[in-house]
Amino acid sequence: MVSGQLDMDRLDYLQRDSYFTGVEEGVIGSERIIKMLDVVNGNLVVEEKGIYSIENFIGARRIMYWQVYMHKTVVASEYMLTSILKRAKFLYQQGKDLFASPSLKVFLQNEITLNDFKKSPEQLRHFSMIDDNDIITSIKVWQTDEDIILSKLCSMILSRKLFKTEISKTPFSAEKINGQKQKIADSLKISSEDTAYFAISETLVNSAYDEKDKQILILSRKGGTQDIVAASDNLNILALTKPVEKHCFCYANL
User: Fold this and answer.
1) CA–CA dist 144, 167 (Å, integer)
2) Residue 243 half-sphere exposure toward CB, CA atoms < 13 A
3) Is the dihedral of CA 86, 87, 90, 95 positive or negative?
4) Cα distances (Å, whole numbers) of residue 34 to 118, 121, 175
5) Using one digit for the tens of pLDDT, what is the confidence trace for 34-58?
6) pLDDT tens per residue across span 171-220
């Protein structure tokens, strides 16, 4: 219920995000699903009569990922924000003291791993203190920094001059990627290595349901349990277990 393929977080954010984005396909019957939940042999299960609600939940999640969470605007914004924080961290490691809130500065100044969180509650406290306000305030200050890469990225995201995002079923050619990087290098007068902050090529993966990880179990009327894929007569559910990959190329269109 806390962390799984049918947890309270997913039931909440699908409804919330569907409402605020206007993507009606993301609407799910969360109240009915909750009513159908039970526990058998220590496992969270869904009563058989709730199987169609689960099928709708899995399908809605797939649609929301492609239409909202992996929308070009979202992908571009996320890559830009990542590049900004990477550049700020690099500058800190070079000895530059950038403006940042105390908790954010802890993560910019230090290499903190998952083990550090486990060993030190203090690191977890600092992480929980960081929110949107810390990031947006820092970006507003950094847009006037003397470092051309950091200031350019910050000013672009604040003015919504987002990276151009192309998504394809096939990988982008090295010629296309290197050509865009060269244009960026010439425009900003930066090295070819530094163009990695302005041009990112990666693979987007959308897996609506993983039948091998924390399965959604259906409780039959006879008391047995089955994975949703085996219990469902909807062939689309089996298809949704296969990850869909698309290739993404985000770059500054200067």
Assistant:
1) 32
2) 8
3) negative
4) 32, 33, 51
5) 999 999 988 899 999 999 999 999 9
6) 999 999 999 999 999 999 999 999 999 999 999 988 888 877 888 999 99
Report which residue type is found at 118. Answer: K
Question: Among all chains, which residue has been given the structure tokens 């987002």?
Answer: 162
Beta strand 164-168 with 244-251 is antiparallel
Contact (CB, 8 A) for 46 and 216: yes
Give 105's pLDDT tier (boundaries 50, 70, 90): very high
**112-154 pLDDT per residue, tens:** 998 998 888 899 999 999 999 999 999 999 999 999 999 999 9
User: Strands of 244-251's sheet, edge to edge?
Assistant: 164-168, 244-251, 199-206
Structure pTM? 0.84
CA neighbor of 153 nearest in space, from 91, 71, 89, 77? 77
